Predict the 3D structure of the following.
Amino acid sequence: MIYTSCILAIESSCDDTSVAVIRGRHVLSNVVANQTVHENYGGVVPELASRAHVQNIVPTVATALKEAGVSPEDLDAVAYTQGPGLMGSLHVGVAFAKAWAYALGKPTIPVHHMHAHILAHFLEPGDPPQLPFLCLTVSGGHTQLVRVNGPLDLQVIGTTLDDAAGEAFDKMAKLMGLPYPGGPEIDRLATEGDPLAFAFTRPLVKGLDMSFSGLKTQILHFLQREMQSNPRFVDQRKADIAASIQHAILGILMSKLESAVASTGIQEVAIAGGVSANRGLRSELEKRRDELNWTIHIPPLSFCTDNAAMIAMTGAIQFEAGFSGSITDAPNPRLPF
Ligand code: KG4
Ligand code: ZN
């Protein structure tokens, strides 16, 4: 399928305001305005996030258009993240996108954030995966195994029963006293540590579903126990603890991904979402390519964490399939897949 439409997309589901312009599969601009106001709070403060989106949205749209060399009249449609995400954050992007598109006389395309993480694989420079493929989607709010029969025909075949993988990284990093978001911190520390320094048991969960909350409790108790006998334990063994935590989380993800490959017979495998930036996960996937002959798809780092280019690609595919939204479409923090 050859895509040709010119789409501007707005992503505001959490704490970053992002605007992208694409033509077909080609990214003309992908601007991300990171919010730093949350750094002192150990997590995203929803009210502060919405206020920062309000401040960022107009200049970010202007920058994205300028970088792309595209004027608003050239656009075929305006796509935006409808959900899931934080209500106040989504509201800003949805209200802006619909009002702006309406004033320009352009159609709007509401997009599902997790669908977009997967369809980031359709953006250049890579070639889209062969269909059907499996995608392990791992972000701060979701962890899913998805069978992708077509870009608009997706089937969730496994999901976390409690925390998302990114949330697990962040919560365990917090237990270690690392700054938010902890995922990239654990990733960085893990490169210097021994993943087998400390062993944690893997939860027994049936089928392709996953669970991370038991691991979190295990690590909490482990750290409390060790700190009792040596209050400097975390400081002294930071890298080994981080590497062992990462090893435990990746063990859960990779064993379920292997089961999904075995049960579907599909060896075309992709990863997506913020945690797909993790170096350990990327190299685990490369190992399966070399040892088990999987065909693997790892997104460039700029398409792993939240970005509007993936929203634009999903919007383009929906638009070219004849779908467009209406002025009454509302943000939905729990938008079903
Ligand atoms: O997809 P994303 O940017 O936002 C959501 O849709 O949630 O994912 C954010 C999550 C956070 O939990 C963050 O800690 C995690 O992705 N993350 C990482 C890495 N980079 C981001 N986790 C592990 N290693 C990384 N390098
Ligand atoms: Zn995301």
Remarks:
- The radius of gyration is 20 Å.
- Residues 113, 117, 139, 273-274, 306 surround zinc ion (ligand 2) (CB under 6 Å).
- Strands lie at 6-11, 16-23, 26-34, 77-83, 108-112, 133-138, 143-150, 153-159, 268-272, 295-297.
